[in-house]
Amino acid sequence: MATGDKGESLTYEQLLEMISAFQWLPEEKRFRLAREIDRNHGTGNQIFGCLLHYAAAIERMERRGTLNAAEIQVFLIKLAERYELVQRVDGDSVVMEVKRVVQAVGVDIVMIGKGNAFVTAFVLVLRRLVPMEWNAFCDYVEKVNWKVVLPHAGPQSRAAAVRTGETGADQSRSTLDAGPVTGNVQLAVETVPSPRVGGLALAFENQGFVDYADSILEGCGSSNSSSSEQVEPEPEQDNSSSGSVLRAENDTGGCLQKGSARKPFLR
Amino acid sequence: MRHHIKFDGLRLFDIGQSVPPVQINHDAWETPPELGGSVVDFLVRQHSRLRSMALDFIMRQHCLLFPYEDGGEASGRLEALLGSGCPVPARDEALEGELWRFGDVLRLELVLKAPAIKLVERTSYALTVFAVTEMVRNGYRRLHALERPLTEWFFSVFMQTMQPTQIPFDVLHGHVVGCRRPTPSESVNIMRENGVFWKAELQSLGNQYLQATVSDPKLMTLQNAALYQQLKRFFGEEA
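Above: the input entities. Below: the structure tokens describing the complete assembly.
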């Protein structure tokens, strides 16, 4: 299936259900699942809030024809400033996951919906990287059957500890506190990647990426704004005068000042 | 000739291929006029409705032959036969990849993985017809595969292959132990006593005899007809 390990495996039907759930509804400016649970903001759950922003961005990229790994990477950098869990995701891993989704479903990506495929892929990456938060998300959106089967609390405690900045000793204690340490625990802990292993954390160590990002982000260091959890779906901006960060790159290669007043999560 | 119709025997061997596109009354079934998303999204949301359509079609066809099986009990049995509880193991390794052999035969995976979906117009009506037709075809495939063991049993009943012998022990024992062959009139009586079996058996043997001795196909046809007439006369069926 689209995901690999035992506890992570999804059935074909569950994958299709996810694709449908993350179908973007242009008239409502949110995905289907958000409509089903009738929520338009991400205050109650980190992943849900993150997805509201991500899905909207994917829709914009798709509409402009700029949906690719580099664009997603740039967007994820900004998203990671607000949602720490996104730090461990990069554009390439999303694109790789898209390929796996398309292969697993067995139809052309156009039939899945390009946006659906990219959002579903992002969701699956998060599902693999942050299983505990993912399960909380499943509870939040009442999709219990999407949950990851966790071996026990050990790896989750560790993952949570890493994210909350605990020391190594504290992390060990968290794992131990969850139950007796066994070989299985160690193995499971090792499967939870460190936040320094890859993804956006290392992106700026790649000179090629730095050059590319500079060309896009030039002059935008001051695009901070007050943050708010409330996601205001961006107004349709087909005229290039009020584009987002990504659009600015597309249109002018540099005028990102516009984004400062409009994107609460782009600090 | 007004219409020239060709029948491809190999295609019809797969019963699924014999199912034409299912006619659907979209108004009655309330097919939405728009997809409202991607193809996959549409099919996922409409799956239970498509499934009902496919089951309804199969039930209606079944009731043409068995009008007394039109209730909920029969529908339940049909669903069970098409469900994951009644898989059909492949006899040949080459057939193991056929998805309709296991799981719920009306699941969406089979529709999405049908090669012809690439050619379907991406409208709600066209996709509905395609999905329901594909489900019905897979349902037919499953049902045909499931009925095969019973068909073999029916054939063995017809051919009386389950009988230990088609000859009375008295006659058989007399021949084997006593080296005594029944007279022609006794033989005729034994065969007429069990005419269904011996008629088929003699016809089969007669055909083998003709195949071994006659090479001209036209003459073969004539000889076959003559053989059949002779059989009827022998068993007293001639009008």
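Note for the figure: The two ends of chain B are 35 Å apart (CA to CA).
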